[in-house]
Amino acid sequence: TNLINNQNFQQTYLKVQEFSLKDPKTYVKRVQVGDEEYDLILKSTEYASLIDREINGIHKYLRDLYAPRFPELESLVLTPIEYAKCVLKIQNEQDLNRIDFSGILSSHLIVAVTVAGSSTTGKPLPQSELQKVLQACDVLFKLEECKNEILKYVESRMQFIAPNLCEIVGSTIAAQLMTSTGGIDELAKIPACNIQIIGSQKKNLLGFSKAMGNLHQGYFGQMEMVKKAPPKFQRQLVRMLSTNCAKAARIDVSKLSPNGALGKEMKEKMLKRFDKIQEPPPAKLKKPLPLPDDKPRRKRGGKRYRNMKAKLAQSEMQKFKNRLKVSLDGEKEYDYTGEGFGMLGQSGMGKVKINTKQQKLNITKKQQSILKRNMGGANTCLLYTSDAADDLLCVDLGGRRIIKKKK
Fold this sequence. Notes:
By secondary structure, the protein is an all-alpha fold. It has 18 helices and 2 strands. The chain has a two-stranded antiparallel sheet.
């Protein structure tokens, strides 16, 4: 690998080892922007992200070398370090039941690897190829060791570099976020939705459900507050953490709160909101029925409304026409219309003469022309009903009689 042989990386790594021996409680207080250790912390975060890229490259190289021996292994063990440890254990061994994977893999993965190894199509590697495989594994382990030591050093100095970020997620997660992105400046440029998945790793579920897989949680899934939260609220808590981390990183870059007061305030607000989210909804109260409103309905008044009612009111003849005498005699009908006369013109109706109010018949010009045509083209005038001896035409026109004008 080019990174391990790089002189700048070796010098930085030696300085990290030197400063790691010093007590951060007494030394960090004297660190300021532009000091040697401040620059070393920023360089360390950059090199930590470079180590991650180097590990991924060597992991691919190792898979290509070891695929002829055990091609199924790379689809079962996905993380680089676990894959390298399995390769170091297996090498050219044919019977995988003799190998103990208990310190490397989980129980269901051990069963899957053992079954796949018994039916694999791979063949033993030549000694020269096996030697390259072992060398690649050694380089992977060395890079992982360098990364862990740098991460431990950066974590001890995080209270100075990113105090607000440490207040929200702690120094360990803050150091992991910074080393994965290449420093606090690079972390501040990343949106919250992408910070949420930093540190996520592919998992081979082997047919198991994804419901409890803790997907899309990244480094936040390692936090105790996330683990202790109810499963249905964990994803919401991770989103809240990533949002506040994005804000805290920008605050730390701008040096608005060197003592971490803003980060502490943001965390308190976030926890209060999360507690509010977890509260059960209030119980539904049975509402009593409203008091009955027996007041009469309000009616409109005024001259216009009275005129409208008078225009649509029933005439006295219509009222008698709609009445029926209680007897066995059938109702008389007019021609083929099927319309009866009710009590009009019958004995016992109680009145000799029907007095009606005079009402003007308001009709349109079109209706007047129709009436004129029906009356034989003569000029007509509108008069009023007066007595009960009206002819049949009065019934058809709603109790109003139309008479030809005298010449």
